[in-house]
Amino acid sequence: MDSASESLLYLSETDEVDLVQRLISDNVDINSKDEDGNSAIHRAVKENKVDVLKLLLENEANINAINKEGNTALHVAILNSSIACFQLLIDHKIEINCFNNRKESELMCAMRLRLNGPLKHVRQQMIELLINHEDIDLRGKSDKSKSMLDGSNYLFIAIQFGNIFAVEKILEKDVKL
């Protein structure tokens, strides 16, 4: 990887929006990845750099890039409880129902996180937004979901995780499981 790409990856974790813009204007590869497969989008989300993320998305960075763990930026936003980045990714139409190397979709990641302490509301909000997303495969009927969920569905998984909030939201959705 060249030094300009390394600089972009580093700066994506900072508030240096002007410097990121300059690198983009200089045609640095906006989709370059570090040794862990993290793109500038992953790194901006991990550090909750909403303005940098917005700039990257406006300049057509690959919103659906995955890292070596199989995580999309949406997985990273959930795992870091970054609701602002989460919402921005959803607004920019990131794919959902993507499974990482642990066979966890974004909703599964959100449901397994503890719902107590100062992040409770943020995590509940993410769960609710995912459950109500127009593309969510709650029934686990897509070919990809069938193979990853091993014939299960999200209601059963929410029960397994002991996530009563998710159970209630799935039941409110009145999905025929």
TrEMBL record:
Gene Ontology terms describing biological process: exocytosis
Keyword Repeat: yes
Keyword terms of this UniProt record: ANK repeat, Exocytosis, Membrane, Neurotoxin, Presynaptic neurotoxin, Repeat, Target cell membrane, Target membrane, Toxin
Localization per Swiss-Prot or TrEMBL: Target cell membrane
GO CC annotations on file: host cell presynaptic membrane; other organism cell membrane
Entries under SMART domains matching the protein: ANK
Claim: ATP-binding is one of the keywords in the record: no
InterPro entries (alphabetical): Ankyrin_rpt (IPR002110), Ankyrin_rpt-contain_sf (IPR036770)
Domain of life: Eukaryota
ANK repeats mapped onto the chain: 36-68, 69-101
The protein, known as: E3 ubiquitin-protein ligase MIB2-like protein
